[in-house]
Design goal:
By secondary structure, the chain is α/β, with parallel strands linked by helices. 43% of the residues lie in helices and 17% in strands. The chain contains twelve helices and nine strands. The protein has helices at residues 16-27, 46-53, 69-75, 96-106, 128-133, 160-165, 179-188, 211-229, 232-245, 250-261, 263-269, 275-289, and strands at 6-12, 35-39, 58-60, 82-87, 90-92, 110-119, 124-125, 156-159, 192-203. Strands 1, 2, 3, 4, 5, 6, 7, 8 and 9 form a nine-stranded mixed β-sheet that branches. A hairpin with a 4-residue loop joins strand 6 and strand 7 (124-125). The longest helix is centred in the last third of the chain and has 19 residues, at 211-229. The radius of gyration is 18 Å and the shape is globular. The N and C termini lie far apart (44 Å).
C-alpha cells in the first residue's frame, strides 16, 4: 500500500548504472514514495538516463557538484513531512520507509531514524550496525531505540521541518562526515536521534569512489566540526588526538592545512554546544576512540 508521508532524496555523481539500479528498487517499494534525484554535474549521461527510464522521478540539475548540499536543494521543496536519504548505491527495503514514518509520527521530539545497513551482494551487516545497536548515548525512556549522537545520511529518515530549521548540511563541508555537525545542531534544538533495528537499507558499495579524497575530507570536516561546536578544552584534546592517530601522509597533511586555512570563518561561525549535548559528545567520543567499524581518519 502506498504511503504519502516520505520523499526519498538521492544525490549522485557519475554513477549512472548504480543510480538506475537504486531507482529500480525504489520504484518497486510498496510505499511508492516520491523520489528526487540531485545530479551533481555528472558527465556520464546520468541525467538523460534518469529522465528516459524513470520519468516520474523529479530530477534536479544544479549545474555543479554540490556534494551533500545537493540534499538541501532537494529538501527545500519537499512537501511531505519526512524525507529519507539514500545514496546512488543504496536503497530502502520494502516497508522500512513506512516503519520510520510510524516512529516519527508517534514521537514528536524525534528528528531522525537510522536503519540497519546490509552490505550487498551478500546481505551482511555493515560493521557500524553493531555500534549503532549498542550506542553509549543515554536517551529518554520514551525513545523507541538506542539514542545516537550522529547519523548516517544514506540510511536515515528525517523530519523535514527539523532538517530545514537546523540549516541542513553545511555548505563548507561538502561531503565526508558531513552528518556530525547537523546532528549536534539538531540535538541543540532539542531533537533526538535514534537507531531502529527493524528497519533496513541495502548498500552495494560502488567501485566508482575516491577513497583518498573522502578520507581527506573526513579529517578536515572532523576538525571543522570540533572547532565549530566543542568547548576549547575538548576541542584542543580532540585536535591533538587526531594529529597523533591519522596516517602520516600527504592526505592527512593537506587535510590539516585546509582546516587551518579556514580558521577565520570557523571562528566567525563558532557556537559552543549546550552542556547536555556536549556531555553526549564526550561519551560518544570515547566510544569512537575504540571503534574499528568505520573511520575517515585512521
Amino acid at each position: 500500500m502506498s504511503d504519502p508521508r516520505t520523499t526519498v532524496v538521492v544525490i549522485t555523481h557519475n554513477r549512472r548504472d548504480e543510480l538506475l539500479r537504486t531507482l529500480g528498487h525504489l520504484a518497486d517499494l510498496p510505499e511508492r514514495p516520491p523520489v528526487v534525484v540531485v545530479d551533481n554535474a555528472s558527465t556520464d549521461g546520468t541525467a538523460d538516463a534518469v529522465a528516459r527510464h524513470h520519468p516520474r522521478v523529479r530530477l534536479l540539475r544544479p549545474g555543479r557538484n554540490l556534494g551533500a548540499v545537493g540534499r538541501n536543494l532537494a529538501v527545500r521543496d519537499v512537501t511531505t513531512p519526512y524525507v529519507a536519504f539514500c545514496d546512488d548505491d543504496s536503497w530502502w527495503a520494502p516497508g522500512s520507509l513506512s516503519g520510520a514514518a510510524d516512529l516519527l509520527d508517534r514521537h514528536p521530539a524525534l528528528a531522525t531514524v537510522t536503519a540497519r545497513i546490509l552490505v550487498e551482494p551478500h546481505g551482511t551487516e555493515d560493521p557500524i550496525v553493531e555500534e549503532l545497536r549498542h550506542s553509549p548515548v543515554r536517551g529518554p525512556d520514551w525513545l523507541p531505540g538506542p539514542a545516537l549522537g550522529s547519523f548516517l545520511a544514506a540510511a536515515t529518515t528525517l523530519r523535514a521541518d527539523a532538517f530545514r530549521a537546523a540549516g541542513g548540511f553545511h555548505p563548507r563541508l561538502w561531503l565526508g562526515g558531513e552528518e556530525e555537525l547537523l546532528a549536534v545542531d539538531l540535538a541543540a534544538h532539542g531533537w533526538w536521534l535514534t537507531y531502529a533495528d527493524h528497519l533496513t537499507i541495502h548498500h552495494h558499495p560502488s567501485l566508482a569512489r575516491d577513497a583518498t579524497k573522502r578520507r581527506g575530507h573526513g579529517i578536515r570536516n572532523t576538525l571543522w566540526f570540533t572547532w565549530l561546536r566543542r568547548p576549547a578544552g575538548p576541542a584542543l584534546r580532540r585536535t591533538a588526538h587526531l594529529a597523533r592517530t591519522v596516517p602520516r601522509d600527504t592526505v592527512s597533511l593537506r587535510a590539516f592545512a585546509e582546516a587551518a586555512a579556514a580558521l577565520p570563518w570557523v571562528l566567525r561561525e563558532r557556537r559552543v554546544l549546550p552542556r547536555d549535548v556536549e556531555a553526549r559528545m564526550r561519551v560518544l567520543e570515547e566510544a569512537q576512540r575504540r571503534s574499528t567499524a568505520r573511520r575517515y581518519v585512521g
